[in-house]
Write a sequence for this structure.
């Protein structure tokens, strides 16, 4: 259940607005997972514990990564990554008011703001490094570099191209097989047999 919303209730300092869903055609950003996380710890009823909310967020995010075909880390490791992000956010909020004008705080807050649009990266580094699918590696690198719209559409294009290439290869294999000398003799024999078995013309 979700309790009725007011703008004040759904606003999150530094981040924006809580979200009840993660949508889009790209891998989720830090901002998106935080919006979804705080929705479940503050607005959702029954209210979830931080660990329960983190688990739900990671499982939601996993759907996007699985669709993209990118290997991801174990769930408990991904949850730990999210909790680290939440902890950093909470430290900024709890910073002593009298020290918020310091260069240290200003720098820390600026860095956090800049990373909000970065990819919430749960890739399994070893498996990704060993992956042979260049399209998947390219997709991940693009997400890590920039928040471009529509990047997951590359997966559809890549799959279609791969199916088309495999189909063409199968056709080429059949053509090569049928053009072998032995196969020609077999074809001739089959044709002769077919002629012998044909019913006489009336």
């Amino acid at each position: 259940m979700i309790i009725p919303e007011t703008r004040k209730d759904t606003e999150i300092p530094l981040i924006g607005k809580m979200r009840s869903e993660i949508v889009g055609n790209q891998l989720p950003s830090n901002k998106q997972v935080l919006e979804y996380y705080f929705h479940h710890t503050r607005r959702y009823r029954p209210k979830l514990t931080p660990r329960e909310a983190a688990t739900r967020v990671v499982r939601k995010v996993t759907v996007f990564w699985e669709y993209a075909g990118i290997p991801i880390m174990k769930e408990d490791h991904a949850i730990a990554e999210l909790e680290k992000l939440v902890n950093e956010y909470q430290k900024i909020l709890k910073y002593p008011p009298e020290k918020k004008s310091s260069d240290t705080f200003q720098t820390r807050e600026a860095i956090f703001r800049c990373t909000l649009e970065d990819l919430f990266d749960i890739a399994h580094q070893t498996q990704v490094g060993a992956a042979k699918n260049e399209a998947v590696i390219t997709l991940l690198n693009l997400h890590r570099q920039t928040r471009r719209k529509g990047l997951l559409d590359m997966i559809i294009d890549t799959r279609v191209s791969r199916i088309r290439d495999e189909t063409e290869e199968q056709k080429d294999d059949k053509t090569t097989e049928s053009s072998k000398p032995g196969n020609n003799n077999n074809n001739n024999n089959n044709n002769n047999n077919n002629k012998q078995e044909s019913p006489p013309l009336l």
